[in-house]
Amino acid sequence: MQLSLWLALLAACLLISFTPGAGAINTMSNSLSSGFRRSLWGILGQQIALLIQIAIVAAGVGLLVSSSPIAFHVIRYAGAAYLVYLGIRKLLAKPADAAEEKDKASQESAFSMLRRGFWVNLLNPKAIVFFLAFVPQFIRPDQPLLPQYLVLAATVVLVDVVVMWLFFAAAARSLRRFTESQRGEKTLNRTFGGLFVGAGVLLAVV
């Protein structure tokens, strides 16, 4: 991949990653509940899903998904339902005191956060449709395809990890003070619960 083309890819990836979505909401929620460092596990789960979506597009399966209304809507509504479920669980979560909150944060396993991040990103067929339009802009068919796809996938993932962790997860750290009181924690639960539900509704209707 030529440097000029890669720089264009880098700029596009930055713009995409900085656009708030379900992944950003999940990252900030993890950072608040489990801490800045441990939120990385959820981010890694999201990246595994991204790699699968890119592989689906590269293999040509993405075209089948986007052209099949049944497959598209099944994945779409499953993703919407999962986001709404996460939101309702947040809305119904009971505030805990500071000591209990610290214990609770340490109780959620890395695998649990990784799994949630994976499903949040994977159950979004619009991402596959997006990659169908996005990927060909940076792939040259007259050049070896595998190295180009590897560079593209590595760039997408690395940029998203950096933005999710050093921007969204870091931004959530400024809200940590709200978790020190039951009232503040309840407000955060309602806020992020509402954001999850809103993201699910948007995925279903837009």
Automatic annotation (TrEMBL):
<dbReference type="InterPro" id="IPR001123">
    <property type="entry name" value="LeuE-type"/>
</dbReference>
<dbReference type="GO" id="GO:0005886">
    <property type="term" value="C:plasma membrane"/>
</dbReference>
<feature type="transmembrane region" description="Helical">
    <location>
        <begin position="187"/>
        <end position="205"/>
    </location>
</feature>
<feature type="signal peptide">
    <location>
        <begin position="1"/>
        <end position="24"/>
    </location>
</feature>
<keyword id="KW-1133">Transmembrane helix</keyword>
<feature type="transmembrane region" description="Helical">
    <location>
        <begin position="118"/>
        <end position="139"/>
    </location>
</feature>
<dbReference type="GO" id="GO:0042970">
    <property type="term" value="F:homoserine transmembrane transporter activity"/>
</dbReference>
<keyword id="KW-0472">Membrane</keyword>
<keyword id="KW-0732">Signal</keyword>
<dbReference type="Pfam" id="PF01810">
    <property type="entry name" value="LysE"/>
</dbReference>
<feature type="transmembrane region" description="Helical">
    <location>
        <begin position="151"/>
        <end position="175"/>
    </location>
</feature>
<feature type="transmembrane region" description="Helical">
    <location>
        <begin position="48"/>
        <end position="66"/>
    </location>
</feature>
<keyword id="KW-1003">Cell membrane</keyword>
<protein>
    <submittedName>
        <fullName>Homoserine/homoserine lactone efflux protein</fullName>
    </submittedName>
</protein>
<keyword id="KW-0812">Transmembrane</keyword>
